[in-house]
Write a structure and sequence with these properties.
four-stranded antiparallel sheet; Bacterial Protein-export protein SecB; 4 strands; extended; 154 residues; 4 helices; single chain
């Protein structure tokens, strides 16, 4: 489980003017996730003093083809689990980190920075950094308009 998540650095940059950016119809957005430097540390937690594994991360959103800007986040997540953390760190250092733990850390990171990335991209005049859901209200067909019984008696 992730006990703590924090950012240490946010960097953003635009390489084109807003007018130039609006001209482009197809901009490739690349996401780069890097989990690195795991370390086992002792920390006071809501569960008492525990050994945790702190994993640093970098998450970059690169606007490419054309190269018009980037947004980059750096920080760390603290992981606590039933595993032997020293063994986990050894596995991680040898390139054999468990996928489920990497996924938990990466998904926590993305869910925390995605709203911030959207605000930054808007402030910089860049296209939305994450897909924004599209709402599409459609007129009901005759079959859908047919009234269904409610089975409510009262």
């Amino acid at each position: 489980m992730i006990l703590n998540f924090h950012l240490t650095n946010i960097e953003s940059r635009v390489f084109s003017s807003p007018e130039d950016i609006r001209k482009y119809r197809n901009i490739n957005i690349n996401y780069d996730v890097n989990l690195k430097n795991p370390s086992v540390v002792v920390q006071e937690t809501p569960l008492g003093e525990k050994s945790i594994m702190r994993v640093e991360f970098t998450f970059a959103i690169n606007y490419m083809s054309p190269n018009i800007g980037h947004i980059r986040f750096e920080g760390a997540s603290d992981y606590y689990g039933e595993e032997n953390l020293d063994e986990l760190k050894t596995k991680w250092d040898s390139g054999k980190a468990p996928d489920n733990i990497q996924n938990e850390i990466a998904n926590t990171m993305v869910s925390n920075v995605a709203p911030l990335a959207l605000m930054i991209s808007k402030a910089l005049g860049l296209p939305p950094s994450m897909p924004v859901p599209v709402i599409n209200f459609q007129e009901k067909t005759q079959a859908q308009k047919k009234k269904e019984p409610t089975y409510y008696h009262g």
